[in-house]
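tool_call: predict_structure(chain=1)
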Amino acid sequence: MSSRATFWRALIALAVLAVSLFFALTTPPRLGLDLRGGTRIVLETQHSPTVRADAAATDRALEVLRGRIDALGVAEPSLARSGERRIVVELPGVQDPRKAAEVIGRTAQLTFHPVRGVSAGPSSRPAADGSRVLPDPYAPGRFLRLGPTALTGDGVKDAAAVLDTQTAHGWTVDLTFRGTAGKQWARITGEAACAAPADPARRVAIVLDDRIVSAPGMQQSVPCGAGISGGSAQITGGFSAGAARDLSALVKGGALPVPVTAVEQSTVGPSLGADAIRASAQAAVIGLVCTAVFIIVVYRLLGALATVALALYGLISYAAVVALGATLTLPGLAGFVLAIGIAVDANVLVFERAREEYARSAVRTPDMRRPLRVGFSKAWSAVADSNVTTLLAAGLLFLFATGPVKGFGVTLAVGVLASMVSAMVITRLLAEFAVRRASVRRRPALTGLATTGRLRARLARRRPQLMRHRRRWLGACAGLLLLALAGIGLRGLEFGVEFTGGRVVQYAAERTVDADTAREAVTEAGFPHAVVQTTGDRGITVRSGELTNHQQEEIRDSLSDVAGRVTVERDELIGPSLGRELRTHALIALCVAVAAQLVYLTVRFRWTFATATVAAMAQDVLLVVGLFAWLGRPVDSVFLAALLTVVGYSVNDTVVVLDRLRELRRTGPNRSWQDLADDAVAQTLPRTVNTGMGALFVLTALALLGGDSLTDFSVALLAGVVVGMASTVFTAMPLAVILQSRHPESHRPKPSRPSAHDRSGAVI
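tool_result:
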């Protein structure tokens, strides 16, 4: 039976590795805009007097926008509807959000009007007969009175920017009409050709979004009544090459069925994305190397084999992301790096279980196969429970997060699943192959399982009786919780622009300037209330409320006066309505996270254990939030990703100890909960420390090398890992003991039979 199971595990492992290698070598990664640079715009459709902005109208608007973007020649654009009224537009390589927003967001309602004469002033709305008055583009201060709309842009079949070398018109836009629109154009121009040469009525006005872009007059060669035949026209207006191409793209794409407004806009420079990839790769390599050295020192040969499995984990998780076609974002890279710690956790759980089994054996033998097999079997329950809780957090990130943070949820979930394959299949195959070697059987200490480890040996000599002082620990935790709440209440939370609305722009300057000098330059530009900070050697960050693209350019010009050439590295604009919505989604995500963990733990454990776990988790979340309140660090979507990860990690750590407590209760039903809890903590503490060290190595590397974008993320997770390990011992376990003492089970579990337990290795 064992050989057959090994055969199937080997077959599965080889198949997974072969498929992973294929996708890794043949499928290029799909990088997000925060890694390759570009502009991301979220548009929201608005109701018009005649059309309701529903899902159907939004879909029609999306197709119009797709035509405009294709006409602009943007490489690999991405357009997708989000919800009922939102359209997400991603434009790789586009670094000028002002131009992109102007071209994409315009309604582009093209109409053709006969000119009735000259008017003394403008009119705010069309007259009853459909006539209107608009400024004459050729004579500043003069206004033309236009007749009702005679032709719309729907009749235009094609539009192209053309350089007219035969006349002095320069760049023009040539129009081609479809169907009966050509006859209508001939009728309009034929009526205009009947007017006197100096009469304004001899002109035809071409209007785009309530602005006359061209009002050509009919030449003497145009016959009265017959007009311009052939189904074509030409728009002249002294256009530049770029303006002519933009206008042709708008006309060709057609008019939007409903107006749209930009509720979110972000731009990332290509150099910033390249730096982020390089920094994340360095953090991953350094974190992996430090983690590998640590587990090799602790677990020797099996630690080295686990390191090989970790490297294969990286291959599997990367191949899964590219095979799924998921977008790889900067937080997503952090999710990859963080999942290394999760993969280490499963290996540590197995190895510590195997160490316990070897130490418990009545007769010490050099054969490590049985302790290893029992270690994998007994660790499965804790590994499954802890990974399910992390998957719940990843799923909530995918459902409630937006933009790059959604990518973190995807890569975290992929990393969790890949870590289970890596630890429970690949590591097991390598370890079982190694312990069967004669050279290894002659040297059992080489495996790392024959030694209990310094921490476990010290705990065996003197077991700490922590639960005797459980109320003292709860009081200390309550004091820390009050300190965190005081920070939230007194200093408040520094919400990022995602949650408040506004704009934050990160500039890269040619010369180094201090914060005061940069602040003065921004004030001189007319924005005294903007928050100005300097980052790195030559980085300047400006955060303000409502800020238009033109105002952003004014700030950049003002900074250039004191810092030399200034370029935009990152530009994020969030509308106030979207900010409120994201803030609401963040609160919903946290509440759903707590509820989901409570339901799952209640199903897997007794309600007393679930309550204690969720209470410790809520404490960890509040402590991390309080820390950021005292430090004045921003609370944004990346922080939300870190917070939900802390939720998963906190529950993960507590579940491992509770799983051991439940097992000890079955083997010793007559023992007190206090003694059982002390034993559970002592037996799982080596795992907690070793796993925590692996996570700390990775997160420290991210904090130091991940750049400004990941510093706050890493700090939040570092704090979450530390308080999560502490809350398991000093909050969750004391609460579990108190609740179990006050609400005992209706019947005591029967003690399990050691022989059957040893044979199956299962924890029921």
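agent: Residues 560 and 688 are 52 Å apart (CA to CA). Proceeding to next step.
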